[in-house]
Amino acid sequence: MTHCSLRSLGGLTALAVGMWLAAAPVAGQAPATGAKPVATAAKAYTPPRTPDGKPDLQGFWTNSTYTPLQRPNSVTKEFYTPEEVAAAEKRAAEREDGQTTPGTQADVHYDGSQFGLTRSQSPFGRNLRTSLIVDPPDGKLPALAPEGQKRASDYLELRKRMGGRWDSAQNNELDDRCISTPNVGPPMLPYPYNNNYQIVQSPGYVAILTEMMHLARIIPLDERPRPGGNLRLLTGISRGRWEGDTLVVETTNLNRETLFGGVDLDGPIDRPNPFRGVGDNVRVTERFTRVQADIISYKFTVEDATTWTRPWSAEIPMQATNGPLFEVACHEGNYALYSTLVAARAADRKAADVGPRKDSK
């Protein structure tokens, strides 16, 4: 079967309009576009407080970035110069805004620049690091453990038996089916667009609303017990606590379908790098620290001895942005998924040179 990337234009229009609204500034607010440099040295900053005396993380934030999750093979240093970062961002923005040839299969895609979806058209945090991963020091994911290698191999074999990506609805990725994307988390990793969040606090709880898929993580701040391992969710089960001015969130009970991915400047700009098949005992520890009025330092560590040979950590600056968030209309009623499969079958028939089916209209 063919692996063409076709979706319903009607679904694309609804999605694009919804995401354009989410990117548009609210009346009376100044548009906050482009990158703001992240301080390279820690400065004394006292965050505002909520009525119950906790650091106030509330507001609208984005983790949009041009920094790849892993350090590219061609890069051997931990930090770029500001000039090198600006050049890399310019190249990436040109790729995002580049136009395809009308009438070709490559032309059936999101035109992000038309709807204000490209990263250069909205706030993003400038990061001088060459990778989001800060540990291991080489900026790469650790090697897979033997069990992780077997799990990955078994997963690929299963997908091969299921057929091509566009052969059935079940074969589509979770983002194709509008179920989840890597920026939902945890960990909350950047996606090519819609990397906006709203944080709301109340005594005993923190809520993180994700623009993409409009999912909300409700995080209790008490010591309530976690459910057993038989309950597993795409966003896991989270418990939070305060360590000084840092909100620490520990998440377990993640589903094996959980998406671990990130933006790759050396690869296709419109797709994340998925890392699938985490183990049952994976733990994600996130740390949110408001280091400036308009910046939250977001750090996380992933521990899963059955998947990787060692834990790994990453750091992403979350930049203040405009609100409110608008609900993303992914594909209403799954019409886009239906159209994707219909188009894939049409491409199969064309490839086989058998022409349209007799019962087609």
Question: Would you write up a description of this structure?
Answer:
The chain has 361 residues and is α+β, with helices and mostly antiparallel strands. It has one domain. It has 4 helices and 12 strands, in the order αββαββαββββββββα. Strands 2, 4, 5, 6, 7, 8, 9, 10, 11 and 12 form a 10-stranded antiparallel β-sheet that branches. The protein is globular.
Protein traits:
21% strand; 10-stranded antiparallel sheet; globular; disordered N terminus; two-stranded parallel ribbon; single chain; 361 residues; 12 strands; alpha+beta; 18% helix
Task: List strands and helices in order, with pairings.
Blueprint: H1 9-23, E1 34-37, E2 59-62, H2 82-97, E3 123-126, E4 133-135, H3 146-162, E5 196-202, E6 205-210, E7 216-220, E8 237-243, E9 246-252, E10 283-292, E11 295-303, E12 312-320, H4 335-352
Parallel strand pairs: 1-3
Antiparallel strand pairs: 2-5, 2-12, 4-12, 5-6, 6-7, 8-9, 9-10, 10-11, 11-12
Secondary structural class: alpha+beta
- Helix coverage percent: 10-25%
Q: Tally the beta strands.
A: 12
SSE run: HEEHEEHEEEEEEEEH
Shape: globular
Radius of gyration (CA) equals 21 Å
N-to-C span: 22 Å
Number of domains: 1
Return residue spans where pLDDT drops below 50 for at least 5 consecutive residues.
Answer: 1-41, 262-274
Beta-strand content? 15-25%
Counted by DSSP, the helix tally is 4
Main β-sheet: number of strands, strand sense, barrel status?
A: 10 strands, antiparallel
Task: Output mean pLDDT.
Answer: 79
